[in-house]
Structures are given as structure tokens and as C-alpha cells.
Design goal:
203 residues; alpha+beta; 8 strands; 8-stranded antiparallel β-sheet
Length: 203
């Protein structure tokens, strides 16, 4: 099974820590609340194991997904439990409604928020690798974790690199997650870029 060595993993976590911090800052600016972050976790898993790693596994969740292609390719997903998603977007949009489902306008708002947050995360990572990422349009998904973290069928039997970070709006008791998923050969390209980055660090 492919895996990064300890130095590569530590370096990758530090790089993503910078990106996730920028994402949290963007979200904090939108909500006017402090966003608490967990320490990122990194694992190399088969598809079914990756899905089961999510704390909200088996529940209905809402996610905004974007694919980033550049020095490596990753599927980035910002997600919240479905019931908290409604509260979250209506708080940001300042909408007062008792309607239990997301409206089309609210789904579009979530896509825009996801686009801002996910790009805020990936931008400093691109700078660190001296490269650029091309991003797809944000896609709104609702369903189980299997659906929200959907990959091509051909990839579901392959080893997946999963990086997971918990986001928390403490005052409103809203928890969300950032997930980043990559498969071979993307992990091999990532490994090469990490090695290049390490080699260029001052001795």
C-alpha cells in the first residue's frame, strides 16, 4: 500500500495546516465568529474505510465539493450535518424561515461559501508548491457520506489518501468538516512535490 514517510506526512500536515487556517479565517469573516479547528488527520485507506472514518457516517449530510488539479489532484469537500446546514446558511444569509429544507437560493449560497472557503485553503498550498490549481465549479451534494464523498466508480477500489479537519462554530454549536481525497497517481505526484519542497528548505 502506498504511503508517505514520516517526514513527508509531517510536512504535508504542516502545509495543509496553513491552508486550513486561511479557510477558517474566511469562514470566520463571513460568520463574525471564531472558528475552532481540530488537528488535521491523515490516513491511507480503501474507499469503504475512508467513508466510515467520517464522524457523520450513516447520517444525511450536505457538502460542497470541488476538484483541484495542479501539482497534485484532490477532491475537496466542505460538509455539515444536514440539520445544521440549514441553520448555518440561514445565519449567514440572515434568513428567518421555518421551512425545513434548503431552498435553491440557499443551495447556491452554500456553493458560493464553499468556493470561497475551499479556494482560501488551496491558495497558500499552491504558493508553497510554486504552482497553480485549476478548480471545477463548486457542486452541492446532499445524502449519506458515500454520496457526498462520491468518486468515480473506477476509483472506489483503490487506496485513497484522506485528510480530515473538524471545524466548529462554538457559539452556535455548529460542527462541519473539511475533507481532502486523492488517489494514485496523484499521491505519487504529491510525494514528489513534497520532496522538492523539503529539498529547497534552508539547511
Amino acid at each position: 500500500m502506498f504511503a508517505l514517510n514520516d517526514l513527508q506526512q509531517d510536512t504535508l500536515l504542516e502545509i495543509f495546516n496553513i491552508g486550513v487556517g486561511k479557510a477558517a479565517a474566511a469562514l470566520s469573516k463571513m460568520t463574525s465568529e471564531e472558528i475552532l479547528l481540530s488537528v488535521p488527520t491523515l490516513a491511507f485507506l480503501e474507499w469503504h474505510e475512508a467513508v466510515q472514518r467520517l464522524p457523520c457516517e450513516g447520517k444525511i449530510i450536505c457538502g460542497i465539493s470541488q476538484r483541484f488539479e495542479g501539482p497534485f489532484t484532490t477532491e475537496a469537500v466542505l460538509m455539515f450535518p444536514a440539520d445544521k446546514t440549514v441553520e448555518f446558511i440561514r445565519f449567514i444569509l440572515r434568513v428567518d424561515s421555518s421551512f425545513g429544507q434548503l431552498t435553491e437560493m440557499e443551495q447556491e449560497g452554500l456553493c458560493e461559501i464553499g468556493n470561497i472557503v475551499l479556494n482560501a485553503c488551496m491558495a497558500p498550498i499552491a504558493d508553497i508548491f510554486s504552482a497553480q490549481f485549476r478548480a471545477t465549479m463548486p457542486e452541492f451534494r446532499i445524502g449519506t457520506s458515500e454520496h457526498v464523498l462520491s468518486f468515480d466508480v473506477a476509483q472506489t477500489n483503490r487506496v485513497i489518501m484522506l485528510m480530515l479537519v473538524k471545524l466548529q462554530m462554538e457559539k452556535r454549536e455548529i460542527e462541519g468538516y473539511l475533507a481532502f481525497l486523492s488517489v494514485l497517481p496523484d499521491m505519487q505526484r504529491l510525494s514528489a512535490n513534497i520532496d522538492r519542497f523539503i529539498s529547497e528548505l534552508p539547511k
